């Protein structure tokens, strides 16, 4: 009887572990989501004849900060503070236009795919993806509930040519 109870307890523990594994969200890193969003946006741009966006770490840092503020509840999900992010970027990058896409993803196993697909289904977000931008960065923050906050900023960099006057 003791062996039978031990086997039953063991089976209950194994089944419980397997059940919890099936219910838990996969552990996708924030960095992996950032790179997947960037890759998918570039794949879409190439498919419609646009140039690839160039990754810019300064832009990504601004995006990460915004996503972190949203995921911590410091600010609502949205574009609050966009003009300040643009001013911050103007300190180091010369650009003529800027755009921003925001996504909140909860309970989905592949947050990058959902975010980009939702952006492409939205006229306002699609315009940013399909506009004449050449620089971009993505920032992702995941909160304690496992929800992802995603920010992508797009810029059109100005080329400043130095001329030497004799």
Brief overview, please?
The chain is α+β, with helices and mostly antiparallel strands. The protein is built from 6 helices and 4 strands, in the order ααβααβααββ.
Determine the mean pLDDT: 86
Helix fraction?
40-55%
What sort of overall outline do the alpha carbons produce when their principal axes are compared? globular
Our count of helices gives 6
For the CA atoms, what is the radius of gyration? 22 Å
- Sheet/helix structural class: alpha+beta
What is the string of SSEs from the N terminus onward?
A: HHEHHEHHEE
Largest pleated sheet:
4 strands, mixed
Show unreliable segments.
8-14, 16-25
- N→C terminal distance: 100 Å
Find the count of extended strands (DSSP E, 2+ residues): 4
Which strand order spans the largest sheet, edge to edge or round the barrel? Answer: 1-3-4-2
β-sheet strand percentage: 15-25%
Structure characterization notes:
There is one protein chain. By secondary structure, the protein is an alpha+beta fold. It is 49% helix and 19% strand. It has six helices and four strands. It has helices spanning 2-23, 30-47, 57-71, 82-90, 111-120, 123-129, and strands spanning 54-55, 95-105, 135-142, 148-157. Strands 1-3-4-2 form a four-stranded mixed β-sheet, with helices on both faces. Strand 3 (135-142) and strand 4 form a beta hairpin. Helix 2 (30-47) runs parallel beside helix 5. The protein is globular. The N and C termini lie far apart (100 Å). Residues 8-14 and 16-25 have low confidence and may be disordered.
